[in-house]
Design brief:
The structure holds 2 protein chains of 2 kinds.
Chain A (H helix, E strand, L loop, with lengths): L3 E14 L2 E14 L3 E5 L6 H8 L7 E6 L2 E2 L5 H11 E4 L11 H12 L4 H14 L15 H13 L5 E5 L7 H16 L4 E5 L2 H4 L4 E6 L2 E2 L1
Parallel strand pairs in A: 3-8, 3-9, 6-7, 7-8
Antiparallel strand pairs in A: 1-2, 1-4, 4-5, 9-10
Helix pairs in contact in A: 3-4, 3-5, 5-6
Chain B lengths: L2 H14 L1 H7 L1 H30 L5 E6 L8 H5 L5 H10 L3 E16 L2 E10 L2 H6 L3 E4 L4 H5 L4 E4 L1 H8 L9 E4 L2 E9 L15 H4 L1 E5 H8 L7 E6 L5 H16 L4 E5 L6 H33 L4 H12 L4 H38 L7 H28 L2 H6 L2
Parallel strand pairs in B: 3-8, 5-7
Antiparallel strand pairs in B: 1-9, 1-10, 2-3, 2-6, 2-9, 4-7, 5-8, 6-7
Classes of the chains: A alpha/beta, B alpha+beta.
Amino acid sequence: MSPALIEARGLAKTYRLGQVDVLALRGVDADVAAGEFIAITGPSGSGKSTLMHILGCLDSPTSGSYRLDGEDVSSLSGKRLAHVRNRKVGFVFQTFNLMPRLTVEENVALPLKYRGGVPRAERRARALRLLERLGLDQRIGHRPDELSGGERQRVAIARALVGEPAILMADEPTGNLDSAAGAEVLSTFAELHAAGHTIVLVTHDPGVAARAERVIQMSDGRVV
Amino acid sequence: MNLLEALLTGLDEARRHWGQTVLSLLGLVLGTGSIVTVLALFGGQTALTEQFLNEVGGRGTIIVSDRERSAHPSARELASKRLTFRDAQYLRDRAGALQAVSPGWAHELPYRAGNTSFEGQVIGTVPDYMAINDIKPLVGRYLSDLDVRHQARVAVLGWKFADSLFGAATVALGKVVSIGGKSYRVVGVMEREEFYFAAWEDNALEYRNERAYIPISTAIAQHSATDNLDFLTLKAKPAMGGAAAQAQVRSLLFARHGVEDFDIRASGQGAGADSGQFLLLFNFIFLVVGIVSLITGGIVIANILLASVVERVREFGTRMALGATAGAIFAHVLAEVLVVTVIGGLLGLGLGTALTGVVAHFMQMPAVVSPFIATVSLTTALSVGLVAGLFPAFRAARLAPVEALRYA
């Protein structure tokens, strides 16, 4: 088996909502090997998004340990976490989250800008290469609002990949798309998987989950 | 991502939505504009006062006058001879800060010529007085040393009095006028003097057109029981400050009198006080409007950037997910504020300059937007922007990525 990219043990997350503590995660173990395509699924409120946020270093667990690509990230500072997010994780959001005022090319190059030390010409070249690979090379100068939903999501996937992350994470990537565009995006994920990328995808749609190699089924803050 | 790059990113952002940026600037523009206008008008007024001081003999002209005796005078006060010719001579000899000393006498006396008569001011003085006050005869001549030595019965009339007594200033020359019951030959008529602090104000120098000058020796011999003077007109050396000269005169006169029974003031002091007061109110209103607009502008900017706008918060969340550090977000927001503020400040400066032109034109007042005013107003705008921008920048930077992404 390939080396473990994600090794999470006993992850728990408690939110304070007014006077009540909400247990979003109640001790979750997760292992993802390099090259896997995994779907985390479950009803809303099951903790699947919380789990993905923690795995993606957008949030820290209340307790438990988490190693990402061999590094213990469960107790890193904000700045170190930003660094980890920038280099190890590529995010794809349900609502695309593109910068409306930037062009497609600028959107895709943004993570490299935050990385620092990557010359402008190289940022551009890497963005263009990815856009070409995803069939968006006719769109580089457009603004996001000039694109279709499916195109926007593929731009977002290009942005997530530009930093050559260890893992690609997607939160309901087809949730805001019609079925044709959704299918298109899913086949993009399938191609990326075939090319060796590690993908973790959160969805409540069984049809989408079925495309993955392995499904982590969540319910009530636990893996079932 | 270094700070410079973050600043450039913020700059770029502000450029890309400049339409929205400019709209959000309105308060800042109006505020800066008002402040520019106030400062320009105020500056114009100051320049006008300076000009007036030059009209009345320049900053170095000092007037010493007798102080009113106190109700219960001390022995020293009673012993003092008040202002005299000897004081004038003493100052001429000892006061190194002065270049000219002119003794003066002033009374209200009846004037009469033909059927016209009225009460008016008479100044007894010496030829130096003309040089000190920078006044010139329109026709004829001014008083001479000879007039003073011989107690000549000659008078030099102010323009207005010559006009009132003889129908026209120029025909007065050589005529005889009765002043205080004595006959004087008119040997000169002074130029008409005018100065207006504002279009709606009266001539601030009219008092100089309503008087006659006679030799001081004649004045004391014909119209006075004592040889006391009423004032001394002094001129400080250009190299000396008026204040230094005043101090020297004060200590010399105090040594002679043994008591401070005299007042020393700069010529033209308190001039234009009325128009000054009106302008002060005017400036005050403008200043308040300016400050209020600036604060409003600051609040608007703060509000727009306060990340209370859902779209922006999610955007920051996304940027953090892509690897932006808190520092990068902070610099980003701050850069946007700075760009917005600089643009607002510059637009405000333009507006203020235009407004100054309009106000100066309609109120007929001098007002100029100097580089100093431009600097001050831009600095003010920038400070407001910084203060308004710091808080939102801090707040945006402190957001947890997952909270920012979920923000609704």
